[in-house]
């Protein structure tokens, strides 16, 4: 014998739990995004103040600001779309490797295999960006206005 009131109660409890879970997950996402965004802005401001205290900005400093810009753009895009833009992570990696390459060349002033490896890594990341852009244009993901329960 099935108890209809027990099934209805279970269904209501499940709905309540799913709703509460979605609210808590959304609240965590928003809180984490604001914290990451604030930390990015704070770090960028500290880096900029360090440049002004120095009286000039090196290419390393400028590339560091580009890294902060890309991180801020990632946070903004994720906040608006709830999708992580993988291309921006690759851009950050390319900028960081470029910064490393420039620092290494300025410091050592000699060609070696490390420069070739870093340049190869940048080329590989550029190719990965090309593949991702091609794949996303050929095979777009289905976007839904509804959140997954």
Poorly predicted parts: 144-149
The Cα radius of gyration reads 23 Å
Q: Structural class from helices and strands?
A: mainly alpha
* Biggest sheet statistics: none
Strand-and-helix sequence, N→C? Answer: HHHH
Q: Tell me the β content.
A: under 5%
Report how far the terminal alpha carbons are from each other: 31 Å
Strand tally is: 0
Compute the number of helices. Answer: 4
Shape: elongated
Percent helix among the residues? over 70%
- The mean pLDDT is 86
Characterise this structure:
- This protein has 149 residues and is mostly helical.
- It is 83% helix and 0% strand.
- The chain is built from 4 helices and no strands.
- The longest helix has 51 residues, at 4-54.
- The model is unreliable at 144-149 (pLDDT under 50).
List the defining traits of the structure above:
elongated; mainly alpha; 149 residues; disordered C terminus
Topology overview:
Elements: H1 4-54, H2 59-81, H3 86-108, H4 113-138
Summarize the structure.
The protein has 149 residues and is mainly alpha-helical.
């Amino acid at each position: 014998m099935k108890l209809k009131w027990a099934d209805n109660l279970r269904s209501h409890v499940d709905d309540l739990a799913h709703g509460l879970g979605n609210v808590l997950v959304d609240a965590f996402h928003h809180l984490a995004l604001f914290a990451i965004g604030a930390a990015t802005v704070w770090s960028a401001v500290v880096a900029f103040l360090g440049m002004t205290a120095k009286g000039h900005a090196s290419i390393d400093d400028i590339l560091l600001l580009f890294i902060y810009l890309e991180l801020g753009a990632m946070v903004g895009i994720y906040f608006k779309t709830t999708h992580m833009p993988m291309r921006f992570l690759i851009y950050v990696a390319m900028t960081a490797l470029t910064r490393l390459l420039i620092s290494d060349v300025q410091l050592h002033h000699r060609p070696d295999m490390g420069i070739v490896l870093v340049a190869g890594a940048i080329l590989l990341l550029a190719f990965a960006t090309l593949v991702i852009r091609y794949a996303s244009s050929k095979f777009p993901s289905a976007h839904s206005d509804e959140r997954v329960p």
